[in-house]
Amino acid sequence: MTDRYDVVIAGAGPAGAQCARDLATRGYDVVVLETESEDEFPRQSNKSTAGTFPSMMASFGIPDDVVMQYTDSVVLESPTDHYVKEQPGAVLEFADFKRYLAEDGQDAGAEYYFDSRATAPIMEGGEIVGMTYNGDQEVYGDVMIDATGPAAPIAKKLGVSDLKRENHAIGIEYEFEGIDIDRPGFADLHDAMMLRLDHDIAPGGYSWIFHTGEDTAKVGLCYIQNNGHDRYARDGFAIDDYLDHWLDTDPRFQNATRIEGKQHRGSAHIQMPGQMHTDRFMAIGDTVPTVDPLWGEGINKCMQSGRMAAAAVDSCLKHGDIEPSAENLEVYDTLWHREVAPNMQKRLWMTKLLYLADNERYDEFMQDLRRLDGDTLSKANQGSVSAIAKLFGPSDVSLLARFAKQEFSFGTSF
Length: 414
Prior knowledge:
CATH topology of the largest domain: FAD/NAD(P)-binding domain
Structural class: alpha/beta
Strand content: 25-35%
Helix content: 25-40%
Distance between the termini: 43 Å
CATH class of the largest domain: Alpha Beta
Number of helices: 13
Largest sheet: 8 strands, mixed
CATH architecture of the largest domain: 3-Layer(bba) Sandwich
CATH superfamily of the largest domain: FAD/NAD(P)-binding domain
Number of strands: 16
Shape: globular
Protein backbone atom coordinates (compact mmCIF):
# COMPACT_ATOMS: atom_id res chain seq x y z
CA MET A 1 0.00 0.00 0.00
CA THR A 2 1.14 3.52 -0.81
CA ASP A 3 -0.14 6.77 0.65
CA ARG A 4 -0.10 8.72 -2.64
CA TYR A 5 -2.58 8.31 -5.56
CA ASP A 6 -3.97 10.23 -8.46
CA VAL A 7 -7.46 9.97 -7.00
CA VAL A 8 -8.79 9.07 -3.54
CA ILE A 9 -12.45 8.02 -3.29
CA ALA A 10 -14.35 7.68 -0.02
CA GLY A 11 -17.13 5.11 -0.29
CA ALA A 12 -17.59 1.92 -2.36
CA GLY A 13 -21.26 2.31 -3.28
CA PRO A 14 -22.37 2.32 -6.94
CA ALA A 15 -21.09 5.88 -7.48
CA GLY A 16 -17.69 5.46 -5.85
CA ALA A 17 -17.05 1.96 -7.20
CA GLN A 18 -18.02 2.95 -10.76
CA CYS A 19 -15.85 6.05 -10.62
CA ALA A 20 -12.93 3.85 -9.52
CA ARG A 21 -13.65 1.35 -12.33
CA ASP A 22 -13.58 4.09 -14.96
CA LEU A 23 -10.45 5.74 -13.60
CA ALA A 24 -8.54 2.48 -13.19
CA THR A 25 -9.46 1.45 -16.73
CA ARG A 26 -7.96 4.76 -17.93
CA GLY A 27 -4.72 3.89 -16.13
CA TYR A 28 -4.97 6.21 -13.11
CA ASP A 29 -3.76 5.23 -9.66
CA VAL A 30 -6.96 5.23 -7.59
CA VAL A 31 -7.81 4.05 -4.10
CA VAL A 32 -11.22 3.54 -2.50
CA LEU A 33 -11.67 3.91 1.25
CA GLU A 34 -14.47 1.62 2.42
CA THR A 35 -15.77 1.50 5.99
CA GLU A 36 -16.78 -2.16 5.97
CA SER A 37 -14.43 -5.10 6.25
CA GLU A 38 -13.60 -7.02 3.09
CA ASP A 39 -15.01 -10.27 4.46
CA GLU A 40 -18.42 -8.77 5.28
CA PHE A 41 -18.75 -6.19 2.50
CA PRO A 42 -21.45 -5.07 1.86
CA ARG A 43 -23.38 -6.45 4.82
CA GLN A 44 -24.05 -3.07 6.43
CA SER A 45 -24.54 -1.12 3.20
CA ASN A 46 -26.87 -3.58 1.44
CA LYS A 47 -29.66 -1.01 1.44
CA SER A 48 -31.15 -0.74 -2.04
CA THR A 49 -34.29 -2.19 -3.59
CA ALA A 50 -31.98 -2.63 -6.59
CA GLY A 51 -34.60 -2.15 -9.26
CA THR A 52 -33.05 -0.86 -12.47
CA PHE A 53 -33.33 -1.02 -16.25
CA PRO A 54 -31.44 -2.77 -19.09
CA SER A 55 -29.92 0.54 -20.21
CA MET A 56 -27.91 0.65 -16.98
CA MET A 57 -26.82 -2.98 -17.34
CA ALA A 58 -25.60 -2.37 -20.88
CA SER A 59 -24.00 1.02 -20.23
CA PHE A 60 -21.87 -0.26 -17.37
CA GLY A 61 -21.25 -3.85 -18.42
CA ILE A 62 -23.12 -5.48 -15.53
CA PRO A 63 -23.29 -9.29 -15.79
CA ASP A 64 -26.49 -11.31 -15.62
CA ASP A 65 -25.34 -13.26 -12.57
CA VAL A 66 -26.06 -10.34 -10.20
CA VAL A 67 -29.71 -10.22 -11.38
CA MET A 68 -32.34 -11.85 -9.20
CA GLN A 69 -35.13 -11.41 -11.75
CA TYR A 70 -35.55 -9.75 -15.12
CA THR A 71 -38.94 -8.02 -15.32
CA ASP A 72 -41.25 -7.18 -18.21
CA SER A 73 -43.49 -4.46 -16.78
CA VAL A 74 -43.88 -1.63 -14.31
CA VAL A 75 -47.17 -1.55 -12.38
CA LEU A 76 -48.55 1.55 -10.67
CA GLU A 77 -51.16 0.90 -7.98
CA SER A 78 -53.57 3.19 -6.17
CA PRO A 79 -55.85 2.10 -3.31
CA THR A 80 -58.47 0.62 -5.68
CA ASP A 81 -56.96 0.63 -9.19
CA HIS A 82 -53.79 -0.02 -11.15
CA TYR A 83 -52.01 0.77 -14.41
CA VAL A 84 -49.62 -1.55 -16.25
CA LYS A 85 -46.87 -0.37 -18.59
CA GLU A 86 -44.67 -2.72 -20.55
CA GLN A 87 -41.15 -1.76 -19.51
CA PRO A 88 -38.21 -4.19 -19.27
CA GLY A 89 -36.32 -4.04 -16.00
CA ALA A 90 -34.07 -5.94 -13.65
CA VAL A 91 -34.13 -6.56 -9.91
CA LEU A 92 -30.55 -6.97 -8.71
CA GLU A 93 -29.13 -8.84 -5.78
CA PHE A 94 -27.61 -5.63 -4.44
CA ALA A 95 -24.88 -7.22 -2.35
CA ASP A 96 -23.64 -9.29 -5.31
CA PHE A 97 -23.83 -6.19 -7.51
CA LYS A 98 -21.68 -4.13 -5.13
CA ARG A 99 -19.16 -6.92 -4.77
CA TYR A 100 -18.93 -7.20 -8.55
CA LEU A 101 -18.22 -3.48 -8.95
CA ALA A 102 -15.47 -3.61 -6.32
CA GLU A 103 -13.87 -6.77 -7.70
CA ASP A 104 -14.03 -5.55 -11.29
CA GLY A 105 -12.44 -2.26 -10.26
CA GLN A 106 -9.67 -4.10 -8.47
CA ASP A 107 -9.08 -6.26 -11.54
CA ALA A 108 -8.67 -3.04 -13.53
CA GLY A 109 -6.05 -1.78 -11.06
CA ALA A 110 -7.99 0.13 -8.38
CA GLU A 111 -6.89 -0.43 -4.79
CA TYR A 112 -9.37 -0.82 -1.96
CA TYR A 113 -8.66 -0.05 1.67
CA PHE A 114 -11.34 -1.91 3.59
CA ASP A 115 -11.96 -1.23 7.29
CA SER A 116 -11.13 2.40 6.44
CA ARG A 117 -13.59 5.10 7.39
CA ALA A 118 -12.83 8.49 5.83
CA THR A 119 -12.95 11.13 8.54
CA ALA A 120 -11.64 14.51 7.40
CA PRO A 121 -9.90 16.41 4.61
CA ILE A 122 -6.18 17.18 4.83
CA MET A 123 -5.68 20.82 3.86
CA GLU A 124 -2.61 22.70 2.61
CA GLY A 125 -2.75 26.30 1.44
CA GLY A 126 -6.54 26.29 1.58
CA GLU A 127 -6.86 23.26 -0.73
CA ILE A 128 -7.60 19.62 0.00
CA VAL A 129 -4.58 17.41 -0.63
CA GLY A 130 -5.66 14.21 1.10
CA MET A 131 -7.96 12.50 3.57
CA THR A 132 -7.57 11.10 7.02
CA TYR A 133 -9.20 7.76 7.70
CA ASN A 134 -9.77 5.80 10.88
CA GLY A 135 -8.95 8.96 12.79
CA ASP A 136 -5.21 9.38 12.28
CA GLN A 137 -4.17 7.53 9.11
CA GLU A 138 -3.54 9.58 5.98
CA VAL A 139 -3.73 9.16 2.22
CA TYR A 140 -2.91 11.79 -0.41
CA GLY A 141 -3.96 12.45 -3.99
CA ASP A 142 -4.43 15.00 -6.74
CA VAL A 143 -8.23 14.75 -6.60
CA MET A 144 -10.49 13.72 -3.70
CA ILE A 145 -14.00 12.35 -4.15
CA ASP A 146 -16.69 11.89 -1.48
CA ALA A 147 -19.08 9.05 -2.37
CA THR A 148 -20.21 8.21 1.16
CA GLY A 149 -23.85 9.22 0.74
CA PRO A 150 -25.68 11.35 3.32
CA ALA A 151 -22.84 10.95 5.86
CA ALA A 152 -20.64 13.11 3.60
CA PRO A 153 -17.76 13.55 6.09
CA ILE A 154 -15.42 15.21 3.59
CA ALA A 155 -18.01 17.25 1.68
CA LYS A 156 -19.53 18.67 4.87
CA LYS A 157 -16.17 19.75 6.25
CA LEU A 158 -15.40 21.48 2.95
CA GLY A 159 -18.76 23.26 2.97
CA VAL A 160 -19.82 21.52 -0.25
CA SER A 161 -22.70 19.41 1.07
CA ASP A 162 -26.10 21.10 1.21
CA LEU A 163 -28.23 18.15 2.35
CA LYS A 164 -31.27 19.34 4.28
CA ARG A 165 -32.89 17.34 7.06
CA GLU A 166 -36.41 18.12 5.85
CA ASN A 167 -35.58 16.45 2.52
CA HIS A 168 -34.41 13.19 4.12
CA ALA A 169 -36.25 10.10 2.83
CA ILE A 170 -36.22 6.85 4.82
CA GLY A 171 -37.08 3.38 3.62
CA ILE A 172 -37.46 -0.19 4.82
CA GLU A 173 -37.67 -3.42 2.85
CA TYR A 174 -37.92 -7.15 3.50
CA GLU A 175 -37.71 -10.09 1.14
CA PHE A 176 -40.65 -12.50 1.35
CA GLU A 177 -41.69 -15.90 0.10
CA GLY A 178 -45.22 -17.22 -0.13
CA ILE A 179 -46.65 -14.05 -1.72
CA ASP A 180 -49.77 -14.36 -3.87
CA ILE A 181 -48.21 -12.78 -6.95
CA ASP A 182 -51.39 -12.97 -9.08
CA ARG A 183 -54.14 -12.26 -6.54
CA PRO A 184 -57.66 -11.77 -8.00
CA GLY A 185 -58.59 -8.09 -7.87
CA PHE A 186 -54.99 -6.94 -8.22
CA ALA A 187 -52.58 -6.69 -11.13
CA ASP A 188 -50.56 -9.75 -12.05
CA LEU A 189 -47.12 -9.04 -10.59
CA HIS A 190 -45.26 -11.88 -12.26
CA ASP A 191 -42.05 -10.40 -13.72
CA ALA A 192 -43.10 -6.91 -12.60
CA MET A 193 -41.89 -4.03 -10.46
CA MET A 194 -44.90 -2.49 -8.69
CA LEU A 195 -45.07 0.94 -7.06
CA ARG A 196 -48.14 1.77 -4.94
CA LEU A 197 -49.42 5.26 -4.14
CA ASP A 198 -51.51 4.96 -0.98
CA HIS A 199 -51.24 7.29 2.02
CA ASP A 200 -52.64 4.62 4.34
CA ILE A 201 -49.49 2.61 3.67
CA ALA A 202 -46.85 5.24 2.87
CA PRO A 203 -48.04 8.77 3.72
CA GLY A 204 -46.18 11.23 1.52
CA GLY A 205 -44.35 8.43 -0.26
CA TYR A 206 -44.87 5.07 -1.94
CA SER A 207 -44.58 1.34 -1.35
CA TRP A 208 -43.45 -1.46 -3.64
CA ILE A 209 -43.46 -5.13 -4.54
CA PHE A 210 -40.60 -6.21 -6.83
CA HIS A 211 -41.02 -9.78 -8.05
CA THR A 212 -37.85 -11.85 -7.61
CA GLY A 213 -39.07 -15.22 -8.92
CA GLU A 214 -41.77 -17.80 -8.17
CA ASP A 215 -43.62 -16.62 -5.03
CA THR A 216 -40.83 -14.33 -3.74
CA ALA A 217 -40.51 -10.55 -3.84
CA LYS A 218 -38.91 -7.51 -2.28
CA VAL A 219 -41.55 -5.58 -0.31
CA GLY A 220 -41.03 -2.17 1.25
CA LEU A 221 -41.98 1.45 1.55
CA CYS A 222 -40.42 4.86 1.90
CA TYR A 223 -41.48 8.43 2.59
CA ILE A 224 -40.13 11.85 3.38
CA GLN A 225 -41.24 13.42 6.65
CA ASN A 226 -42.40 16.56 4.89
CA ASN A 227 -45.70 18.35 4.30
CA GLY A 228 -47.22 15.44 2.42
CA HIS A 229 -46.31 13.05 5.22
CA ASP A 230 -47.56 15.42 7.91
CA ARG A 231 -50.89 15.78 6.11
CA TYR A 232 -51.62 12.05 5.94
CA ALA A 233 -49.55 10.41 8.70
CA ARG A 234 -51.09 8.47 11.59
CA ASP A 235 -50.28 9.55 15.13
CA GLY A 236 -47.67 7.33 16.73
CA PHE A 237 -46.88 5.38 13.54
CA ALA A 238 -43.24 4.85 12.56
CA ILE A 239 -42.10 3.37 9.28
CA ASP A 240 -42.13 -0.22 10.65
CA ASP A 241 -45.74 0.25 11.77
CA TYR A 242 -46.83 1.23 8.27
CA LEU A 243 -45.14 -1.83 6.76
CA ASP A 244 -46.75 -4.09 9.37
CA HIS A 245 -50.13 -2.50 8.62
CA TRP A 246 -49.73 -3.22 4.91
CA LEU A 247 -48.68 -6.81 5.57
CA ASP A 248 -51.68 -7.33 7.84
CA THR A 249 -54.29 -5.84 5.51
CA ASP A 250 -53.20 -6.80 1.97
CA PRO A 251 -54.43 -10.33 1.10
CA ARG A 252 -51.42 -10.92 -1.12
CA PHE A 253 -49.35 -11.32 2.06
CA GLN A 254 -51.74 -13.66 3.88
CA ASN A 255 -49.39 -16.66 3.59
CA ALA A 256 -46.13 -14.75 3.15
CA THR A 257 -43.14 -15.19 5.44
CA ARG A 258 -40.02 -13.08 5.75
CA ILE A 259 -36.81 -14.58 4.42
CA GLU A 260 -34.27 -14.67 7.22
CA GLY A 261 -31.46 -12.13 6.97
CA LYS A 262 -33.11 -10.25 4.10
CA GLN A 263 -33.96 -6.92 5.72
CA HIS A 264 -32.77 -3.63 4.27
CA ARG A 265 -32.99 -0.08 5.63
CA GLY A 266 -31.76 2.97 3.81
CA SER A 267 -32.07 6.68 3.32
CA ALA A 268 -31.41 9.38 0.76
CA HIS A 269 -32.12 13.05 0.25
CA ILE A 270 -34.64 14.23 -2.33
CA GLN A 271 -33.71 17.77 -3.31
CA MET A 272 -31.88 19.92 -5.80
CA PRO A 273 -28.12 19.61 -5.45
CA GLY A 274 -26.17 22.57 -4.21
CA GLN A 275 -22.44 22.95 -4.73
CA MET A 276 -20.92 19.70 -6.02
CA HIS A 277 -17.22 20.51 -6.29
CA THR A 278 -14.40 22.78 -5.26
CA ASP A 279 -10.63 22.81 -5.77
CA ARG A 280 -9.39 19.22 -6.13
CA PHE A 281 -12.67 17.81 -4.85
CA MET A 282 -16.02 16.44 -6.08
CA ALA A 283 -19.07 14.98 -4.33
CA ILE A 284 -20.88 12.20 -6.19
CA GLY A 285 -23.80 9.79 -5.80
CA ASP A 286 -26.10 10.29 -2.83
CA THR A 287 -23.63 12.76 -1.34
CA VAL A 288 -24.91 15.23 -3.97
CA PRO A 289 -27.78 13.89 -3.89
CA THR A 290 -28.51 12.00 -7.10
CA VAL A 291 -31.55 9.73 -6.60
CA ASP A 292 -34.41 10.29 -9.06
CA PRO A 293 -37.05 12.20 -7.08
CA LEU A 294 -40.09 10.85 -8.91
CA TRP A 295 -39.55 7.09 -8.95
CA GLY A 296 -36.71 6.68 -6.46
CA GLU A 297 -34.31 5.03 -8.93
CA GLY A 298 -30.80 5.57 -7.64
CA ILE A 299 -28.44 2.95 -9.04
CA ASN A 300 -28.24 4.24 -12.60
CA LYS A 301 -28.11 7.86 -11.45
CA CYS A 302 -25.27 7.15 -9.01
CA MET A 303 -23.33 5.17 -11.60
CA GLN A 304 -23.71 8.01 -14.07
CA SER A 305 -22.58 10.49 -11.42
CA GLY A 306 -19.43 8.44 -10.83
CA ARG A 307 -18.77 8.25 -14.56
CA MET A 308 -19.13 12.02 -15.02
CA ALA A 309 -16.70 12.61 -12.14
CA ALA A 310 -14.20 10.24 -13.74
CA ALA A 311 -14.50 12.16 -17.01
CA ALA A 312 -13.86 15.42 -15.17
CA VAL A 313 -10.74 13.97 -13.51
CA ASP A 314 -9.52 12.70 -16.86
CA SER A 315 -10.04 16.09 -18.51
CA CYS A 316 -7.51 17.54 -16.07
CA LEU A 317 -4.98 14.84 -15.26
CA LYS A 318 -4.50 13.38 -18.75
CA HIS A 319 -2.73 16.55 -19.85
CA GLY A 320 -0.34 16.64 -16.92
CA ASP A 321 -0.23 20.41 -16.75
CA ILE A 322 -3.89 21.28 -15.95
CA GLU A 323 -4.59 21.75 -12.28
CA PRO A 324 -7.81 20.12 -10.95
CA SER A 325 -8.99 23.50 -9.71
CA ALA A 326 -12.64 24.35 -9.10
CA GLU A 327 -12.73 26.10 -12.46
CA ASN A 328 -11.31 23.14 -14.35
CA LEU A 329 -13.56 20.62 -12.54
CA GLU A 330 -16.65 22.66 -13.48
CA VAL A 331 -17.18 20.19 -16.31
CA TYR A 332 -18.46 17.73 -13.69
CA ASP A 333 -21.38 20.01 -12.80
CA THR A 334 -22.12 20.58 -16.49
CA LEU A 335 -22.15 16.86 -17.25
CA TRP A 336 -24.20 16.09 -14.14
CA HIS A 337 -27.01 18.47 -15.08
CA ARG A 338 -26.94 17.42 -18.73
CA GLU A 339 -26.42 13.66 -18.49
CA VAL A 340 -27.31 12.52 -14.97
CA ALA A 341 -30.37 14.54 -13.98
CA PRO A 342 -31.74 16.82 -16.70
CA ASN A 343 -34.96 18.64 -15.72
CA MET A 344 -34.27 17.92 -12.05
CA GLN A 345 -36.26 20.90 -10.78
CA LYS A 346 -39.32 20.01 -12.86
CA ARG A 347 -39.20 16.43 -11.63
CA LEU A 348 -39.02 17.67 -8.05
CA TRP A 349 -42.15 19.76 -8.61
CA MET A 350 -43.90 16.75 -10.13
CA THR A 351 -42.94 14.69 -7.08
CA LYS A 352 -44.27 17.28 -4.65
CA LEU A 353 -47.57 17.46 -6.50
CA LEU A 354 -47.83 13.68 -6.58
CA TYR A 355 -47.35 13.27 -2.82
CA LEU A 356 -49.75 16.12 -1.97
CA ALA A 357 -52.62 14.42 -3.85
CA ASP A 358 -55.06 12.35 -1.79
CA ASN A 359 -55.96 8.68 -2.26
CA GLU A 360 -59.06 9.47 -4.31
CA ARG A 361 -56.92 11.47 -6.73
CA TYR A 362 -54.52 8.52 -6.97
CA ASP A 363 -57.40 6.35 -8.21
CA GLU A 364 -58.25 9.02 -10.79
CA PHE A 365 -54.58 9.19 -11.73
CA MET A 366 -54.67 5.53 -12.84
CA GLN A 367 -57.55 6.43 -15.18
CA ASP A 368 -55.58 9.42 -16.48
CA LEU A 369 -52.63 7.18 -17.30
CA ARG A 370 -54.83 4.83 -19.31
CA ARG A 371 -56.40 7.80 -21.10
CA LEU A 372 -53.14 9.37 -22.28
CA ASP A 373 -50.93 8.01 -25.03
CA GLY A 374 -47.47 6.63 -24.37
CA ASP A 375 -45.69 9.55 -26.02
CA THR A 376 -47.41 12.05 -23.70
CA LEU A 377 -46.54 9.97 -20.64
CA SER A 378 -42.92 9.69 -21.76
CA LYS A 379 -42.67 13.45 -22.21
CA ALA A 380 -44.32 14.07 -18.84
CA ASN A 381 -41.83 11.74 -17.20
CA GLN A 382 -39.02 13.76 -18.80
CA GLY A 383 -40.41 17.02 -17.38
CA SER A 384 -42.35 18.46 -20.33
CA VAL A 385 -44.64 21.17 -18.93
CA SER A 386 -47.21 20.78 -21.71
CA ALA A 387 -47.37 17.02 -21.20
CA ILE A 388 -47.62 17.37 -17.42
CA ALA A 389 -50.50 19.83 -17.85
CA LYS A 390 -52.54 17.10 -19.56
CA LEU A 391 -52.55 15.17 -16.27
CA PHE A 392 -54.51 17.92 -14.51
CA GLY A 393 -58.07 19.15 -14.80
CA PRO A 394 -60.52 21.56 -13.12
CA SER A 395 -60.85 19.28 -10.09
CA ASP A 396 -57.14 19.78 -9.33
CA VAL A 397 -57.44 23.49 -8.56
CA SER A 398 -57.26 22.94 -4.78
CA LEU A 399 -54.27 20.59 -5.15
CA LEU A 400 -52.41 23.11 -7.28
CA ALA A 401 -53.27 25.86 -4.80
CA ARG A 402 -51.83 23.81 -1.92
CA PHE A 403 -48.71 23.22 -3.97
CA ALA A 404 -48.33 26.93 -4.74
CA LYS A 405 -48.83 27.84 -1.08
CA GLN A 406 -46.23 25.28 -0.01
CA GLU A 407 -43.69 26.59 -2.49
CA PHE A 408 -44.33 30.20 -1.51
CA SER A 409 -44.14 29.45 2.23
CA PHE A 410 -41.23 27.06 2.26
CA GLY A 411 -39.13 28.09 -0.72
CA THR A 412 -37.43 25.47 -2.83
CA SER A 413 -36.88 22.76 -0.21
CA PHE A 414 -38.71 19.50 -0.81
